[in-house]
Every structure is written in structure tokens, then in C-alpha cells.
Amino acid sequence: MIQKPKNYDTIQVGGGESLKAGGHKCVIKMLEEATSSKGNQMLIISFDTADEDIQPHFYMDRYLNDSRDNKKWGGRFYLVTGGEYGPANLKRFCTAVEDSNDGFQAWDFSGALRMDAFKNMKVGLIFRKEDYIADDHQLRTATKGFRWCNYEQAYEQKEPEPKKLPQSESALQATTPAGVDMGFLNIPADALENEGLPFN
Questions:
Q1: Which of 70, 97, 122, 177 suits 138 as a labelling partner, its CA being 20 to 30 A distant?
Q2: Is the pTM of this model over 0.70?
Q3: Taking the alpha carbons of 86, 159, 175, 58 in that order, is the dihedral positive or negative?
Q4: Overall number of domains in the chain
Q5: Which structural domain, as residue segments, surrounds residue 37?
Q6: Do the domain assignments include residue 4?
Q7: What's the pLDDT tens digit per position in 70-110?
């Protein structure tokens, strides 16, 4: 006969606190150049929630409390800069950062994006709930970055409508393709600095 464990009533399940949908005050940790699966130029924006956010340093706490060997940084935003909508999305991001930091300029005199200058800059980010099919083929919901905004106006932003999967996928007919990293960053164990964080 299985007996109820002594600490059963106090055990926390479900993976801990989730990030709330809606506007958050964030800090940029790093910008990286990449290429999308369709061959378009792309920015990978690593970020965390700010000290004064309603859920401060959400991704740092989650990362440091992760006991797995292959832990990953969860605060990432993939911004395609090419294609039909890329330039407008890039301008929205750069404008949000410029409006959030007095005197900050996203571009240098030659017209190049000042990649390193974005580190530690403040910016607002609006999150929405998105459905996805997990590795166990179950329908789950995650909170992901949706649109950039002014840092000081983050809390004034309306929570976006959730992103639902198409009917065929939400019926659990789809599977997660092999190799999809679900928006997380692999951090080699020997590359960690600054008290175990993947950023200097």
C-alpha cells in the first residue's frame, strides 16, 4: 500500500511561477545576428525583466534555480529584419529602445546597428499566451514576447489576445519537429561567468 509522503501537501508542482501576460519592464542583455530558416537576416534579442518590474529578474531566477546540466536562458526574442515585415519590426524595436533611454541612438553614423550599445538598455515588452504542442504531444500554453514598447508605458499596454493553434494542431495531431529549441539558448557549462549567468 502506498502511503502519503510527509511533505506531500507542501510539494510545489507545475514548474514554478509563470510570467504574466501583458506589459513588462525589461532590460536587454545581448543582441546577436543570425539567419532565419527562410534565409532572412535576424536579430536574437536576449533580455530579462527589470529590477522594478512586477516580476523582477524572472529569467535570471529561473536560470539560476534550474538544476539541470543543460539549462537554458529563456528570455529571447527572435526578430526577423528582412522580408516584407522585417524592416517595420526592426524600427519598432529600435524606436522602443530609443524612447526608453534618454539620448540613446540605435544607429551609428555609417548606418550600422550599434549592437553592443544595446546591452543593459531598458525597453518595454508586451507578452501574450501562445499554445504549442509539447514533446509529450500534449497541448500546452507558454507566455512569449509579442511586441516592443516604451519602458515607462509597459503597464499601460493591453494584454494581447492569446495565439491559438489551428484546429488540426490543437486536436493534438501535430508533433514538435526534431531540433526545435522552443526559443531557449543553450549555454555551455564552461562559458558561464558573472556568478553563473550567461552574460557579462
A1: 70
A2: yes
A3: positive
A4: 1
A5: 23-176
A6: no
A7: 889 999 999 999 888 899 999 999 999 999 999 999 999 99
